Amino acid sequence: MTVDLNLIRNYKLEEVWLPFSESILEWEQDFHSLMLNDEIRMVAYQNAIREVVKPDMVVLDLGTGTGILGLWALQAGAKQLYAIEVNPDMIPVAIATFEQGGMKGKYEIFEGLSYDINLPEPVDLIISEILGNIGDNEDCVPILNDAYKRFLRTGGKMLPSLVSIYLVPVSSLQAHQQVRSQNCKVINAKYSLEKLLQARSLASPFNHYYDAIIPRKCYLSQPQIARRLNMDGNDDPVYQAQLTFVVEENGVFTGFKGSFIAQLSESVALDISGDDINTRTTSDSWKHCYLPVETPVEVESGDEIDLLFSRSYPIHRDSPFRQCYAWSGTIKRRGNLIHAFKQSMGD
Ligand SMILES: C[S@@+](CC[C@H](N)C(=O)[O-])C[C@H]1O[C@@H](n2cnc3c(N)ncnc32)[C@H](O)[C@@H]1O
């Protein structure tokens, strides 16, 4: 099954897509082509790797995929590259990338989940791009905590070194309607919202997040940081964030937009919140995270939206990628409760 890249690079504002990050273990090579063509992602990572990698470093590329980040590290002077990848189909692709890049003898690839791999020596730098559109929805926290503790030498560096997760309440009746009618775009016929909801035992499509470009014109308030991931081996994958947003624009509240800013190096930050599709300030492979609420609510400037955002990590799920998010809260007008909402991906 292949993906028509032209079709999936041809997306529109407020168009709802099936969440890309929920099928990591099934990603095909065409998903990787989409990432390789995602300009803001590629430019940011290449510049950061050139800045951080110093000659003679030993580098780990965790989740190497096509091997592109590892190749850039070697080209920047790394003396040895270790690459880990769980998807067996990507191993020959990564080998071809390193070999065609003239890196014979300078790399070693380990097939499997990083938790199950041991490296021959500690590394100076861990490079990874296992970020979802709300930062931690590809499980980067437990994966990178483990990698930090077992693979990195004392004083070694992480790239990214800090990831901030942003949330903002939005008004998008268009997105709301697509979720209500379960009419979301998929990258190919292998995937469907019905299957995803069934697999999660979710009756309501409003109890899941989606990929969508939600532009600034939909913001009801200022974005706020819900979580900072310090990438120091001690980030907790399970957390709750309590935020209060003061509504600045009259509109119909339909949910939240999530996005991240990742500090890749001292001078490179990757911000996926952009919304100009024509000039590609948007990311083709991430889009934004749309967390819908079931009942749209008319809100006025001055109203307060209190949000409790939480991430859990249920142990009974049999996937290594088992994040669950919940978003609930209230809306108050001049101190009086006018509405309550509660959505959850389960427990
Ligand atoms: C978003 S892709 C990035 C691929 C490549 N690094 C790039 O930037 O183009 C993430 C890759 O990491 C792999 N991956 C995610 N978590 C992993 C883990 N814990 N161990 C090994 N591979 C992992 C996935 O299979 C996927 O190929």
Textual characterization of the structure:
With 347 residues, the chain is of the alpha/beta class. The protein has two domains: 26-160, Vaccinia Virus protein VP39 (Rossmann fold, 3-Layer(aba) Sandwich); 163-344, Hnrnp arginine n-methyltransferase1 (Distorted Sandwich). Helix content is 20%, strand content 32%. It contains eight helices and 15 strands. The protein has helices at 5-8, 29-36, 39-52, 68-75, 91-100, 140-151, 173-180, 193-199, and strands at 58-62, 80-85, 107-111, 123-128, 152-159, 162-170, 210-212, 224-229, 239-246, 251-263, 269-271, 288-299, 304-312, 324-333, 336-344. The strands form three sheets. Strands 6, 7, 8, 10, 11 and 12 form a six-stranded antiparallel sheet that branches. Helix 6 links the parallel strand 4 and strand 5 (152-159). Bound molecules: S-adenosylmethionine (SAM). S-adenosylmethionine binds at residues 24, 27, 35, 63-66, 68-69, 84-87, 90, 113-114, 129-130, 143.
What's this, in brief?
With 347 residues, the protein is α/β, with parallel strands linked by helices. The protein is built from eight helices and 15 strands.
What topology does this entry show?
Blueprint: H1 5-8, H2 29-36, H3 39-52, E1 58-62, H4 68-75, E2 80-85, H5 91-100, E3 107-111, E4 123-128, H6 140-151, E5 152-159, E6 162-170, H7 173-180, H8 193-199, E7 210-212, E8 224-229, E9 239-246, E10 251-263, E11 269-271, E12 288-299, E13 304-312, E14 324-333, E15 336-344
Parallel strand pairs: 1-2, 1-4, 2-3, 4-5
Antiparallel strand pairs: 6-8, 6-10, 7-12, 9-13, 10-11, 10-12, 13-14, 14-15
S-adenosylmethionine (SAM) binds near residues 87, 114, 130 and 143.
